[in-house]
Amino acid sequence: MWYDSRVPIFLATEVDDLTTAQPYEMTVSQASEAIALRSLSPVELMRSLLERSSAQDPVLRVWETLDEDAAMEAARRSEQALSKNETIGRLQGVPLGVKDIFNTQGMRTSSGSPIYANFVPDHDSTAVARLKGDGAIVMGKTVTTEFASFDPPPTRNPWGLDHTPGGSSSGSAAGVAARMFPAALGSQTAGSVLRPASYNGVVGFKPTLGRISRHGVFTVSWSVDTLGYFTRSVEDAALLLDVLAGHDPLDTASSDTPVEPYRQAATAGGKPPRIGLVRDFFFERADADVRNHTERVAATLADAGAHVEEIRVSADFDDMLAAHRVVMSVEMAAVHQQVFETRADDYAPHARETIEAGLLLPGITYVQSQRIRRRFRRSMEKAASACDILLTPTTATPAPRDLGTTGDPWFQTPWTTVGFPTITLPCGLSSDGMPLGIQLATGRFSESKLLAAASWCETVLGKDGEAWSTPPDRN
Question: Is the pLDDT of residue 15 over 80?
Answer without folding.
Answer: no
